[in-house]
Amino acid sequence: MVQSGINDFRSEDSPYREEIIREIRVAIFQMVNDESRIAAIKEWGLNELQSEAAASFLREQLEHFRGKAVAWLEEERSAGGRKLFGLYAMLARRIGKEQQWIQEWEERIRASLISFVEANHYRVGLLVKENLDLMDDASLVNMLEDKVGKDLQWIRVNGAVCGFVVGLVLTVFQLF
What we know:
Number of strands: 0
Distance between the termini: 127 Å
Order of helices and strands: HHHHHHH
Oligomer: single chain
């Protein structure tokens, strides 16, 4: 008897089905205006999302997805990576055609980096100061010589050449 009632609900022209759907719609519309029920449902939803069961479910799903991805990558490795390379080539061609899209993303990235640096510029100075304070004099000198030693050497060479040329010019002026 219960199964026949359920089967009646499955048919689209059943009057019982239409009546139940109408009652569900009325209950939903009434619930929209009931702030206390909406708050209770939100609280229940947040509690369920923050529960250990939800975290466990998410971990299981992510582990399942990770397992599938690893298996697919292993399959690709054994097949020579043709599908993966094909996917990469397709994405590269498609992105290459979308120059405006690329420019928009570059501008977004540039703007976000600039705003991040502007918002945290004092932290960069503090970080550099802290790192320099951690170094002793010998390691600081070694680091500076490694980083700017070549540039300083070229400055010395250019200074010597300029000094030689200036000395020649002055000597020529003294002779005449």
